[in-house]
Each structure stands twice: as structure tokens, then as C-alpha cells.
Amino acid sequence: MSAVALAAETWTRRHLLDVDQLSRSELEATLDLAGDLRERRATGELGEMARRLVGHTIGLAFYEASTRTRVSFELAARELGATVVDLSVAGSSVAKGESLVDTMLTLERTGVRTVVLRHAAAGAPYLVARNTGLRVLNAGDGAHAHPTQALLDALTLRDALGGALDGKTIAIIGDLAHSRVARSDLHALTRLGARVVLGGPPAWVAGFQHWPGVSVAASLRDALRNADAVMTLRVQLERAAGGGYGFLREYTRRWGLDEERMNWARARAPLLHPGPTNEGIELTADLAAGERSLIGRQVTNGVAVRMAVLSLLAA
Amino acid sequence: MTARFGSLTDARATFVLAGVRVVDPADGSDAARDLAVLDGRIAEPGDLPDDVRHLDGRGLVVAPGFCDLHTHLREPGMEGAETVATGARAAAHGGFTTVCAMPNTDPPLDEVARVAWVTWLGRDASARVRVIAAATRARAGEALVDFGELAAGGAVAFSDDGVALPTARLALSALQAIGPLGLPLIEHPEDPTLASGTLMRTGPVATRLGLAGWPPSAELLVVERDIALAEETGGRLHLTHISTAAALDAVRRAKDRGVRVSCDVTPHHLAMSDAWVAGDRTFNWDAPSPTASGPFGEALDPLRAFDGTCRVNPPLSTREDGLALLGGVADGTIDAIATDHAPHPPERTLVEFADAAPGTIGLETALSLGLAAVDAGCLSLATLLAALSTRPAALIGEERGLRTGAEADLVVFDPAGRWRVEGDTLASLSTNTPLLAIMVPGVVRLTVAGGRVTFDEGMGLLV
Asked: Which tens digit of pLDDT belongs to each residue from B333-387?
């Protein structure tokens, strides 16, 4: 199916709150479209897609710090011809104590039709989706979900692993408990046919053994054995600090990734990281910059995936 | 609401309710007959004058009036959420004739004058308002209140509800001090060092949603601590809103040893599980869908997931806990169903889940949830009605029962009737409940408190 034909189709849903909303075929079609848009953007051949969102106003409401997600959403929206307004939270009525719902209603009344929302509270996009007329694109809510990150991870993995994830084993290492990226990845990767093995300190993986298609390994070596690809998550230093400096050193000792340990995985297994990285803690700088690393590819794919999602939601 | 409310200062009622099913946990009776009320007292039908009002009671149930051990009336200080008057109307609508007002108002009810003020506000309300006084001054968890003076001033129990007494030493002192008074210390059993920062019960649903989990040990630690202290001191302990099978087991063992401990459970912990936070709206007694792969399988419902009204404290339990708690009501280990009626205005619940004020209203839906459990075969009707009326009333020294000569204090309801919970069907000033738009069984038709009609839905006594 060509990108033009794909783009003519849109989702019937109004929001992208998490990838759990998407069927396997919708997921695959979205990744196909994103792959196409990536190529056409690189060669300057966006064509009609460059006018796809002309007349649409998209609001960026980032209640939490973000670089790559915010920039890639803004670029994606502009590539498709949208007008972008940025609700800079620090200088807005939010700083005066306005509620999230009231702020979003205000945004809606100014003519914004779609909001890209990043918020520290899990579930915030659901609150906005049911109490305003806005289309809501979840750009990360608390530790709950980060659907476009999962899509870009899936696209990156699919490209690296020969076009499909069926039967592949993906290891995810780190602080699952506080990771919205990991939760959305679990939905996306298991739906695309992959097995996921998790590894990390007990407090960070507790409870995930109940997730269908997911297992929890007792050691890094066990987690990486048979892994076709490895993803390590950002250690949120402020959380690790709660366990004391010793906890952080112990984390690096047991779960930190370097080029040698990557050999525990399958030959040439690639490495992913949602960024920003803490080099020297969850992975070495050499590994992050090395041949296995797909970290740069993830960022590039982020723009393409967000273009795909914005175009699918646009109708 | 089209129904009518009366008050405790209205004229005493006289009527005959013909052919009604009389369920009286006070004497274990359950029979269809005529029930007569003459000048506010239960009478023999033959003793009434010929021109007395005859009401058709066929298909209806009459039981002793309900007594809620755990009600937040929000007055003084939070009158935008509820007042004594509106909370008492909500009580009457739900079949309650007594509500026990929790003292976490602003200012808190830690002095005789404040207890007297709330009691006075309730003098002409639609339900008896009894006051639970704070256990520590300003509810600060430091210095104990003057228990004797507050008891003389009308307090029926003591509690810092919202939190437990912070140290074992303080709880020990409180239980020692109230021992001679015979009144209970009501504890909200929760260890703040484990509970703080948590948003829902630990478990697969919390894992799926990424919400910080409340461990059952947070409840069990304080339950076990306080039971040990009650056993040592002989003071009366009442554990409110227990929510876990582990806490229930601890209470059961303590009762077997003869410890002076009682406990209650809320209707929502009996009926709803932690899956409600993810948007599920089935009750604990509903069979789980055979196709559901736990909380992980399906997309969250955008209209229901992360609804702030599902944030309660203690958090909604697992389904297994809910079923265990139903078993605790059925076998009598749990003394009472208490609502923890916790009204909040929309600006406190139409917010991010993490910012939602914990608690749900409950006075007007307690009977309905209980009847749904009865319909599902989890409880007998007599057990449910005892847990709502005679047993909680006994804990605060109130009489209940439908024997001839007793003051008429009763509820009449249609167990087969159904109603949809909506803002305009509720008498409470607040509508924070996850039951909105849900059909539930059990329609209250008449409530009589202290011989006066306080609520009438189409029976024709209040016009």
C-alpha cells in the first residue's frame, strides 16, 4: 500500500491515549506510513502530505520538561502544514493555579483542535479527552504511557530485525516501575508478536511477571540470553537517590550495559534507549556511541512516527 | 428530587403498612404482616383507630432504621461539599436514621463547644446526628483530647479519622484513657510511612496503570498494633473501613481471643475492585468475563479510566479481598457496613487522578450495593440489614428493633425496584461517586426516624 493510499485512511478514534487502543493491523499500517514518510521527508518529496494539516491548529501542552518529544512533535506538525501553538506552562495561567481541564477548555475555545499533552500525572490525557472537545495525543503521562515513543521503538526495531517482530525476543532493562515508555512498549511489542524479557532490581520489575507475553529475568545475563535486541531505560537519578548512592552503584554493577555484556545477547543485537541517557550508569558512553546503538535512529524515527500519527488523527 | 423530606421535629407519625415483609434483625423475625405505627411508636394493628392511614406494603420490606458509623458531613468548614442538613437528607434518602459525623472538619471537632454545635445543627435535620470527637487536639496526633468532658458533651466515639494515631504510645494512652468511658476509639488503620505517595492498591492493575501501589501491609501493621494495644489495655477499639483479607483475618483471630474489637467495611470495598480505576464497572460478585486476560488485555475506556471518583482511602481492593470482606460480613466478623460518605465538590474530583480528593459519597447507595450483593447470593437479606442497622447502632448504644412499643425507627424499601444513580437523584450536595449513570437495585420508599417521617417517596405521608 502506498503512503498516499494509507494517508487517505484515518483512524475512527479521536485520540491516541496509548497503543493499547491499536489493533495489530493498525499498528503495522502506522509503522508502514511512518517508514514512508521518513523516506519522503529525507528526499524532500512530501508532496500532498506537506499540506495535510493546513488549517489545523495543534497545541503543544508540555507540563513536564521534554526535548526530543516536544521538538519532534512540533517539527512533525509543521512538516504537515499545521499551525502550532505552544502553551508554555511556566508563563501561562497554569502558573496561576488554573485546573488542567479549564486550561484545555481555554485552548479549545481559541480554535485549537488537537492537543499534544505531556503531564506528570498518569491518566491526565484521559481526563482531558472526556471533558473537552479536543483530540488528545498523549505525549507521556506519569508512569503510565508514551504511545508515540512505543511506535518509534517498534519502527526502529522492525527495521533493525528484518521487517517483523514475530518470534523475536526483546530485553528491556531498568526501572520498569516508573517507566511510561516501557509500559507502552510492552503493549506494542507483544501485539507485534515479540516476546519481552525484563531485567532490573526487584523493586523496579515487581508486578510485571503478570503481563501476558512478558517474563522477568533474575540477572542481566539471563535477561540478555536469546535477546534479539536490548533496550535499557533511563535511570531517574532522583528515584535512585531514594535508595542511596550504594543503590546506584549496585545498579550499574548488576544491570549496567557495556559492549562486553552486550555479547550475552544474540550476535549483533542492537541497543535502544529512549533518552536522555545517563552514560556511566545504565550504559557506557562507548556503547551509546558504538555500532550497536540505534539511539540516533530512534530520534529520527520519532519525527516520522509523529507525522504518521498526526496525519491519521487529522480528519 | 421529587421525594419529600421531613425532620426530627415534625409531628409523630401514625399509619399502617399492610402486607409488608418485616425483617427485624433484633429478634431474627422475617414475616409478611401488617406493621402499625401510632404516634411514632410501633403498635399492634388492632390498637389503631379506624380512620388511620393504610399504606400498601405489598412487595416492600421494612427493617430497623440504618445507622452509619462513618459519615463526613463537612460542616463546619467545607459547606460547599455538604452540610449537616444536606448530609442528613442524603442519609434519610438512603434509609439511615442515624449518622455519626466524623470530626475532620475545619476546625476539627475536638472541643465540647464544637461537638455541641454540630449536634445543635442536627436538631431538626432529617436524621439523628451523633458526633465522633477527635482523639487528639486539632487532630494533630500529639496531645490527647479530654475524653471525659467530650463524652459528657455527647461524643459517641473518638477518632482522628483520615489517619491513625501516629504512634503506638499515643494509641496505648488513648485506649487506656477511654477504657472507663466504654466508648470506642475508631481507628483508620493505615501506616503513613507505607501509604504516603501511593494512589491505588498494589497489584496488576496498578502495574498496568503506572500508579504507585498501596501495600496491604500498610493496613495490617496498624490493625495488629492496635489489636495488641486493645488486648493489653482492655480499651474498646473499632477499626473502620478495613479493606484487606489480611486485616479481616487479624480481626477474626482477635475476636476469637476475646479482644474488645469491632470493625466495619464500606459498601464500595465490598462491591468494587481496583479494576474500577482502570475503567471496569463490574461488581466483585459479577463473574469475570471468560475472555478477559486480566487488566492487561484490552484498551482502557477513555470515558472511565483514571476517574478521580475511584480514588478512595483505603484504595479499592482486589476482587479477592472484596469477596473475603463479603464473607466477613456474612459470618459476622465484620460488625457493620459503614459508608465513609465523603462528599467533595467537582473541583476536587474533576482533576488528575493523583490530585483527586480521596473518597466517595455513599449514604444513598449503600443499601443498593448491599442488595446487589444479596441478589448475587453473597449475603442474606437479614445479615445485610443487621450490618446496616442493629449491629452498628449497638456499637454506639442506640436501640433498634420493630417490637411493639418501641419508638418507630425504620426504613421501607422496594427490593425489586431499580434506579439510576444521577446527580439529580441524589440529595447530597455532592455527586462524587463512580456509580453515576449505573442502574442499581433497591428503592427507599419511606424512612422514619424517632417516630417522625424523614423521607417519603410516593407513600403519601409527606405532602
From this structure: 999 999 999 999 999 999 999 999 999 999 999 999 999 999 999 999 999 999 9
Look at domain A148-298 and name its CATH class. alpha beta
How far is the alpha carbon of A15 from chain B, nearest alpha carbon, in Å? 9
Task: Render B65-116 in DSSP notation, one character per residue.
Answer: PEEEEEE---TTT-TTT--HHHHHHHHHHTTEEEEEE-S-SSS-S-SHHHHH
- Model-level pTM? 0.95
State yes or no: cis peptide before B107, omega within 30 of 0: yes
Average pLDDT over residues A209-214: 92
Whether residue B305 is contained in a domain is answered as: yes
Catalytic residue among B340, B414, B424, B456: B340
What is the distance between the alpha carbons of residues B299 and A279, in angstroms, rounded to a whole number? Answer: 35
Backbone φ and ψ for A153, nearest 5 degrees, come out as: -65, -45
3-state class (DSSP) for residue A131: helix
**Which residues in chain B have Cβ-Cβ distances shorter than 8 Å to A123?**
209, 211, 305-306, 352-353
Omega prior to B314 cis, within 30 of 0: yes
Question: CA nearest B348 in A: which residue?
Answer: A99
In one-letter notation, the amino acid at residue B121 is L
ipTM of the assembly? 0.94
Whether the CB-CB separation of B295 and B457 falls below 8 Å is answered with no
Instruction: Locate the domains of chain A by residue range.
Output: 3-146+299-313, 148-298
Q: Are the Cβ atoms of B352 and A119 closer than 8 angstroms? A: yes
